[in-house]
Design brief:
mainly alpha
Length: 138
């Protein structure tokens, strides 16, 4: 019985990794695709909103990563209903941070400092401890 529960946590952890990857890898791509939106100026808040909306949603460089990012949200909500929220949130948030940093570096945006790598390691260590404590209580 305990092995079946362990397997279910293990299988849902794969979904959480997928969510972290979908969210994290698309963040830098959406940032890149939205380049230029801050230069749009209109004389009212409503006109500004619609001009920015039109700008963003007319660019495939923004829309495609957004759709992929939103598909991660679907997987997230599915997994949220099947497993413990105290595992889902820290795992997905930390993996999102990790994949965002790695994707940004891959795209040549910014090079993480040693402090960033140490922080990523500590976050992953903390999540590992959190997951291990949940597996021990099962």
């Amino acid at each position: 019985m305990m092995i079946l529960l362990y397997d279910s946590y293990l299988s849902y952890s794969v979904y959480l990794i997928i969510v972290g990857m979908l969210w994290g890898c698309t963040n830098p791509l959406m940032k890149r695709g939205s380049k230029g939106v801050s230069e749009i100026r209109r004389d009212s808040a409503i006109k500004q909103f619609f001009a920015e909306f039109k700008f963003l949603f007319s660019r495939y460089q923004y829309v495609i990563p957004l759709v992929i990012n939103l598909s991660g949200s679907i997987v997230f909500y599915y997994t949220l209903g099947k497993t413990d929220i105290s595992l889902v949130v820290p795992i997905t948030n930390s993996l999102t941070f990790l994949f965002t940093t790695l994707t940004s570096r891959f795209l040549g945006e910014e090079y993480p400092t040693n402090s960033t790598y140490i922080g990523m390691g500590l976050v992953l260590l903390g999540v590992s401890i959190c997951v291990q404590s949940k597996l021990e209580t099962v």
